[in-house]
Design brief:
heterodimer, A: alpha/beta, Rossmann fold, 9-stranded mixed beta sheet, 6 helices, globular, B: alpha+beta, Elongation Factor Tu (Ef-tu), domain 3, Alpha-Beta Plaits, 38 strands
């Protein structure tokens, strides 16, 4: 497809996104730091590797979610390395499906039903699913394990986002803050967005692979929201 | 006449199809004494609602054209435009919105904010129309006004604030609590004409207090005095609250939400009061005109009757007595017998008869002041024209008109129909800028084009009914286009010099893809290899070539033609020769420039119960659609997709049978995209076959 250079250049490579295993990933941050931007980049990376991605957005509209992709694609296109921008935009659209739910309407059973609708009718076979806005506060460990099992049975890679709160200082031994401090072992990869003076650092708290030399110095560029390697 | 403009309201009533617009308008006319009996839209008495003036509308129970009507409520002149609800007629809605100062957005208490409400709301935002929301049909089973108000906030991003509370719901709907006056309102009499105001029922007092607090919190943002009164815990007067609501509404930052059931005659009179209290008068709204004598500089119209006239023709209708032109005046005065100038044509016309419209009955008047909506007789113009006093040359800013995406060939069945058909087509294309008609030179067929299947169907019906023109209708055709995908050189010599006066011209250069524009001609000739006087002929030759592409005969767009070389002959070169040379050059370049076929892609939204989501997605997927996303709330779901128009024929039938008639869809034009290879080959083959047969 000719997007290998884009895939290779992606600084997120260090967290082994292309793993064959059906890993579960988690992006944590306080409100407004760029969780969705990071999830969208993880989704785009999967799309550029030829996979199909379901983007579940709980509490947001289709248009708003779409706008995130459009913005990030525009930034990627800016350096001019992609020869046919229309083709890329079209490809992304065909490889991505947005599912939005009202907070109250999202359940594991419904998600399974929707994914089955897509897969059994051969409409869309996702390899990766990102779930933005899942209510970790209202879900217990059993619910998370339930979803993990669903992802495994459907051979899906899943990425979640979760909001951590400034005034809640409970942490797990691995350094994963609340509300996931007791369930962090469910996830194979955990990335915490950590704001410092003028950058937002990506702290990789858990990872399936050994981090290569120099890893752990990823940042989010605050103007483009793109992941950068320092 | 120096009418007090503060006592004029020009309002529109728009909403999703079947939300009860026409029924509501009917009730308004009844309560304002304009009509003396109520006829239901699909009533058993067969008379039909007064606003549905066209026969076809009466039969189908839908409103197609926005009839303007006038009424008077407690000393306030209200001009109402009843606008159609189906997306196929959006240009009608948009044109109506252009001349309105405010609007009532009607929502069904069960269906809530549906896709068409979203479209209409977007249009209202585009034209800065302040609005009141009216949640109708509160007597229906499943009515839930609070949920609808929440949807207004979520889906339309409106700051929706309920200023009424229902007393009872569904079949128990009795009346409502007014949160501004804190009184209960009931509607007595056979047709709800007697209003009874009482204290709030004891069992609702707490709820009413709580909701009033919420409402005051929201509206106090728009009035410092109210905010102060609340902070100081002074008495909060009705006037203060009303003023705050009005300020918020006019600033488009607040949408007061009212409730009722037009069909059950509940809540209509309070809505009329709200129109007076919260919606703008013509002086509250700034309307902009373009000064054509001054480089289209923007000028605000004054609303002053003593200034020179500026009026906009926003709708034409062919009535029993000739052409009827609906006009909105923005400043100055329209007087019977005076001369006015049509700014588009520069023609002077005399104002013959001037009438105030009440659906399809009318009332003769002598003059109309600024801010009024009236109709003129016997004035020749197109919809969207501006009329001015001869001393100025202003035009009201242009309206956004989408390009047609679908076309049909029609043929009259006999001679009589032939004449009537051309009369009808002439009329329709004047009335509706999205309706186009032309004759295909190759097939000599008459082609009509518009915004969707239903749009064209309605015009064909109207041709039959209003003009007695029976026509045979071809298969709907999608408006394909062709474009090029790469740069290509051309160098073509047109030469005919065999005796007599010859023809000679050579045109060299290249063509390349051009984004977002149809065509551009660039003259890069240096040293006069093509003489100045023939450059125009080259441009013309290219333009003629654009009319019909070689792949499927569709028009070509998105091409830049650059001429940088050529040759001429001192005697044999002519305009004609260079036109021919340019055509030849275009043909030569076009084949090398990898031409492709483009098709219209529609943005489609299907709404229905969640249980059918799988089936809906399957049906869209089968039709080459790209599903953009889904939205779920409770048991209700929306699937958004981008669909090729060519695959959407007959979709409404499919959808109905798939979902037991419980789902519906809307579509609007989104963009043009290249057709997939397999389809493209089919289209090319079809075109070649049809040419062979001719």
């Amino acid at each position: 497809m000719g997007y290998e250079p884009l895939v290779k250049q992606n600084p997120l490579r260090v967290v082994d996104l292309g793993s064959k295993n059906n890993q579960m990933g988690l992006v944590m941050a306080r409100a407004g730091l760029g969780k969705t931007a990071l999830l969208v980049q993880i989704a785009l990376d999967s799309i550029l590797r030829g996979n199909r991605v379901v983007h579940v957005s709980i509490g947001d509209s289709i248009d708003k979610t779409r706008l995130w992709y459009d913005d990030i694609i525009q930034v990627i296109l800016q350096d001019g390395s992609v020869s046919n921008p229309h083709e890329l935009i079209d490809m992304v659209q065909r490889h991505r499906m947005i599912m939005t739910f009202k907070e109250s309407a999202f359940t594991r059973a419904r998600l399974e039903e929707r994914l089955n609708d897509l897969i059994l009718q051969d409409i869309f076979k996702p390899r990766c699913i990102v779930i933005d806005g899942f209510d970790f506060g209202g879900a217990d460990r059993a619910a998370l394990e339930d979803i993990k099992e669903l992802m495994e049975s459907m051979s899906l890679q899943a990425w979640f986002s979760v909001v951590s709160h400034r005034n809640d200082d409970r942490v797990s031994p691995a350094g994963v803050p609340a509300p996931c401090h007791e369930d962090d072992d469910i996830f194979d990869t955990v990335i915490l967005l950590n704001p410092e003076a003028d950058v937002i650092k990506l702290d990789i708290l858990r990872s399936t692979s050994e981090l290569p030399e120099g890893a752990g110095e990823l940042t989010l560029d605050p103007s483009t929201m793109l992941v950068k390697s320092m | 006449m120096n009418k007090d403009l503060n006592k004029v309201r020009n309002i529109g009533i728009s909403a999703h199809i079947d939300s009860g617009k026409t029924t509501l308008t009917e009730r308004i006319l009844f309560y304002t004494d304009r009509i003396h009996a109520i006829h239901e839209v699909r009533g058993k008495d067969g008379v039909g609602a007064t606003m549905d003036s066209m026969e076809l509308e009466k039969e189908r129970g839908i409103t197609i054209q926005s009839a303007a009507t006038y009424c008077n409520w407690k000393g306030i002149d209200i001009n109402i435009i009843d606008t159609p609800g189906h997306v196929d007629f959006t240009v009608e809605v948009e044109r109506a919105l252009r001349v309105l100062d405010g609007a009532v957005l009607i929502l069904c208490s069960v269906g809530g904010v549906q896709s068409q409400s979203i479209t209409v709301d977007r249009q209202m935002t585009r034209y800065n129309v302040p609005r009141i929301a009216f949640i109708n049909k509160c007597d229906r089973t499943g009515a839930n006004p609070a949920r609808v108000a929440q949807q207004l906030r979520d889906k339309l991003n409106l700051n929706a604030v309920m200023i009424q509370l229902p007393i009872g719901l569904e079949s128990d709907l009795e009346g409502m609590v007014d949160l501004v006056t804190m009184k209960a309102i009931y509607f007595d009499g056979d047709q709800g004409e007697e209003i009874r105001i009482e204290d709030i029922p004891a069992n609702m007092q707490d709820e009413a207090d709580e909701k009033r607090e919420e409402m005051l919190d929201a509206v106090s943002m728009f009035s410092d005095e109210l905010m102060e009164a609340m902070l100081e815990e002074e008495e909060i007067t009705e006037e203060l609250v009303n003023e705050a609501i009005r300020n918020g509404t006019l600033a488009l930052e607040l949408a007061p939400v009212m409730i009722g059931s037009a069909y059950k005659n509940k809540g209509v009179q309070p809505l009329l009061d709200a129109v007076e209290k919260y919606l703008p008068s013509p002086t509250d709204v700034e309307n902009i005109a373009l000064d054509l004598d001054n480089d289209e500089k923007e000028i605000a119209v004054s609303n002053d009757v003593n200034d020179p006239l500026v009026a906009l023709a926003f709708k034409l209708e062919d009535g029993r007595y000739g052409q009827l032109t609906y006009v909105r005046t923005y400043q100055g005065e329209l007087k019977k017998g005076e001369f006015i100038v049509n700014c588009r044509t520069g023609k002077k016309v005399k104002v013959g008869r001037l009438v105030r419209m009440h659906s399809n009955e009318m009332e003769e008047i002598d003059h109309a002041g600024s801010g009024d909506i009236i109709a003129l007789f016997g004035v020749d113009c197109a919809s969207g024209d501006t009329f001015c006093h001869s001393s100025i040359n202003w035009s009201m800013s242009s309206m956004h008109v989408p390009t047609p995406v679908i076309s049909l060939a029609i043929a009259p069945v006999d001679n009589k129909s032939q004449a009537n058909m051309s009369k009808a087509l002439n009329r329709f294309s004047k009335e509706d800028p999205t309706f186009k008609t032309f004759v295909d030179h190759e097939t000599s067929e008459t082609i009509i084009s518009g915004m969707g299947e239903l749009h064209l169907e309605v015009y064909i019906e109207r041709m039959k009914r209003e003009y007695q023109a029976d026509v045979e209708v071809g298969v709907p055709r999608v408006a394909y286009r062709e474009t090029i995908t790469q740069k290509a050189d051309f160098n073509y010599t047109h030469k005919k010099q065999t005796g007599g006066s010859g023809q000679f011209g050579r045109v060299g250069g290249y063509m390349e893809p051009l984004e977002d524009e149809e065509y551009e001609f660039v003259d890069d000739i240096v040293g006069g290899s093509i003489p100045r006087e023939f450059i125009g002929a080259c441009d013309k030759g290219f333009k003629m070539s654009l009319e019909k592409g070689v792949l499927t005969g569709a028009p070509i767009t998105g091409v830049r033609c650059v001429v940088n070389d050529g040759a001429s002959h001192s005697v044999d070169s002519s305009d004609m020769a260079f036109q021919q040379a340019a055509k030849g050059a275009f043909r030569e370049g076009y084949k090398k420039a990898k031409p492709v076929i483009m098709e219209p892609i529609m943005k489609v939204a299907v709404e229905g119960p969640s249980e059918f989501q799988g089936a809906i997605m399957g049906s869209l997927n089968q039709r080459r659609g790209v599903i953009v996303g889904t939205f779920e709330e409770g048991n209700y779901t929306v699937v958004e997709a981008e669909m090729p128009l060519s695959e959407m024929f007959g979709y409404s039938t499919t959808l109905r049978s798939l979902t037991q008639g419980k789902a519906e869809f809307t579509m609007e034009f989104a963009t043009y995209k290249q057709v997939p290879k397999s389809i493209s080959e089919e289209l090319i083959k079809e075109y070649e076959d049809s040419r062979k047969n001719d």
